[in-house]
Write a structure and sequence with these properties.
This protein is α+β, with helices and mostly antiparallel strands and 263 residues long. It has helices at residues 2-11, 74-83, 118-124, 140-152, 171-176, 219-223, and strands at residues 13-16, 31-46, 49-52, 57-60, 63-65, 87-92, 103-109, 116-117, 128-130, 166-167, 181-187, 190-194, 197-201, 211-215, 236-245, 249-252, 259-261. The chain is built from six helices and 17 strands.
């Protein structure tokens, strides 16, 4: 019986590639996921979460939906149009449950010639942006590509000032966004390793200007993606994460998908 279960589990391990914002099995290795039946969506709670018939919630991994405005919730409405009363499959590429026992998955709508990748469509529409975690990083690279196109075309949230990419030199704006998730763009002018921390400084006055912090224990994950600490000096980058204040505005990153090289 144990061997049968093992075979069934292995059968669920599939590597797929993306075509547009759909889901196709043509380019192996682009986004490896372990896929399972999910069920029919009974309710959409918000732009990030659905409830299945029979109970159980699924949180869409890899994205953060656009916040609702008084009287309207465009991200929730979009997600309802995509999945409500539809059968979905779940794709796992990392940690499977959060502390609230919600499933953490990529979601695919069945019933079409090419199943629809829900996270991809939400990002493509500009109604969600990429939000990743060290223990759930699958599919982030194709999502970043879709986000880039949505931002260039000012779709959805990207037409709003509150979601714009902030310059690393705009200290006042960065301070104003303390406690918020944001995307910051700038040039690294100095790199320093002090004890258990790595600092990427974006100006000469590190006590007041924007800095990116990486715990030294996490650097091997960046090195595994081809990052070289010394070669980062002088590079233009885009960083995403939660803004806080520590000797000026700071974002701490713990996995390489949080930093994009721009040149």
């Amino acid at each position: 019986m144990g061997r049968v279960l093992a075979v069934l589990a292995l059968a669920g391990m599939l590597s797929f590639g993306f075509s547009g914002f759909g889901w196709a099995g043509q380019t192996a290795g682009t986004c490896p996921l372990e896929t399972f039946e999910g069920g029919v969506v009974r309710r959409v709670l918000d732009g990030n979460t659905v409830v299945l018939e029979g109970g159980g919630q699924v949180r869409l991994t890899g994205i953060g939906a656009m916040a609702p405005f008084p009287g309207t919730d465009a991200a929730k409405a979009k997600l309802e149009a995509l999945v409500l009363k539809r059968h979905i499959r779940l794709g796992y590429g990392g940690w499977r449950l959060d502390r609230y026992k919600r499933k953490l998955a990529q979601i695919f709508v069945s019933g079409n010639a090419k199943p629809l990748w829900v996270q991809g469509e939400m990002v493509r529409s500009g109604l969600a942006r990429v939000v990743s975690f060290a223990d759930n990083r699958a599919c982030i690279e194709p999502l970043l590509q879709l986000e880039r196109r949505a931002r260039e075309n000012r779709r959805g949230m990207w037409a709003l000032r509150s979601y714009r990419v902030v310059s690393a030199s705009d200290r006042d704006e960065l301070i104003q966004r303390t406690g918020q998730f944001g995307i910051v763009r700038g040039q690294i002018v100095a790199v320093a390793r002090k004890g258990s921390r790595i600092f990427l400084n974006f100006d000469r006055d590190w006590r007041h200007d924007f800095t990116v912090l990486i715990a030294a224990r996490n650097w091997k994950m960046f090195a595994g993606k081809g990052f070289d600490l010394e070669s980062l000096r002088g590079r233009k980058v885009q960083v995403r994460g939660w803004l806080r204040q520590w000797n000026g505005p700071m974002i701490e990153i713990d996995h390489p998908e949080q930093i994009e090289l721009l040149n």
